[in-house]
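Hallway conversation turned thread

IA: we were arguing at lunch whether anyone had actually written out HTH cro/C1-type domain-containing protein end to end. Turns out nobody had. So, for the record, here is the sequence (466 residues) and right after it the structure tokens. Reply here if something looks off.
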Amino acid sequence: MAKDRPVYMGPRLRRLRRELGLTQSDMAADLEISASYVALLERNQRPLTADMLLRLARTYRMDMSELAGDGGAEQTARLQAVLKEAMFADIDLPALAMQDVAVNYPGFTEALLRLHTAYREEQLTLADRGTGGTGDATDTPDPVAETRRFISARRNSFPLLDDAGERLAAEIDQAGGMAGWLKARHGLRIRRLPSDVMAGSMRRLDRHRDAVLIDDALDEAGSGFQLALQITYLDMRNDIDALLKDGQFISDSGRRLARRALASYGAAAIRLPYAAFAKAVEARRYDVEALARQFGASFEQVAHRLTSLQKPGQERIPFFFLRVDPAGNVSKLLDGAGFPFARHGGSCPLWSVHQLFGRPRQVVTQWLELPDGQRFFSIARTVTAGGGGWGAPRVERAVALLCAAEHAHRLAYTQGVTPSEPTPVGITCRLCHRSQCLARSAPPIGRDMLPEDYRRGHAPFGFADG
């Protein structure tokens, strides 16, 4: 009969002792063992027996599961995700070895993960400089680019906020809703006021009257999100500050934009709690409209949340998200699918997301193929911001979700439908070498133009093969 594997919890024991403000001698006295034995336990030179676990739980009044933790499962999953990258492909890293590192050396694991995140962020910074013109570090900072790098380097996944959001969602549910919870927790009531009284604000915290003021022109999804956003600013402030400390920001505006993005993430984690939402997306086969109705959210809110379901060990399909206006301006971009979107200049006009404004509220699907053969599946639809009354200003935008073709069979949009021929698209005209594209707006970099003295083709530009 196989023996149980010895349990070594040295780093966790050391962390517990430090959190309690104890020396090794203090803990030894509390547990009625020698200080040298505590030292051996902390260095993983002795396993932690069941008797010692019980003694720790009784002495410090801790729940056994809290003390045992998850066995390093989350850290192991995060480490495995990082080590799957191409730069580590030639290194033999057995899964058991990674688990041993994560369990026995959590401090080292966290240091490696932070270093990798910083590396990704710096790579994105260099890529932006390389395509942005001068490449000079003294260029005027771009707050939007800073925020996108911060989010992209972390794959738009912030488990700290997901966990906090789930806890708050459970408390809100027990309180009977946000109104009851805000009153009990913060002594705040909710007041819905006309737009002219709100003077251009969708939401405002009125400390003088102990109220959260909400524009009554907002629909259910909008007002619910704004209330969740206010709760995030009240109760996740420390978590957001902790995440921002690891960011590399050149400007205060970049940090503020990133803070706003994290707050929106936290609000989504409250409105669409990770475990419940991740379970629902599988049951609904990623049907965005059905999920929106189930959770009382908007199409855009659900599409946005789908990009963040990458919590280690609980991952779902990775998505790329884009929001554009009729002029092609990108107002939101989140990449979890590895789609090579152009950081500068326009994207490919053959992508259906740019052709939706004549088909409002209609979900349009499309298969896409890049010049290198990569295939993706796109779901796109228009969304409306503003409105709520006659004459109220509103803005029409289009949002798109995109995943790698290998995941498309799991989506409701592909069920019972024969895949159509993919649309050949490029990243941007300057980087696309498809010679016969009628939608081209500029010749590709590095190709010589052909003279038109004797011949003009259908394509806007003719360029040499070499």
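OS: looked through it. The radius of gyration is 26 Å.
IA: good, adding that to the notes. Residues 130-138 have pLDDT under 50 and may be disordered.
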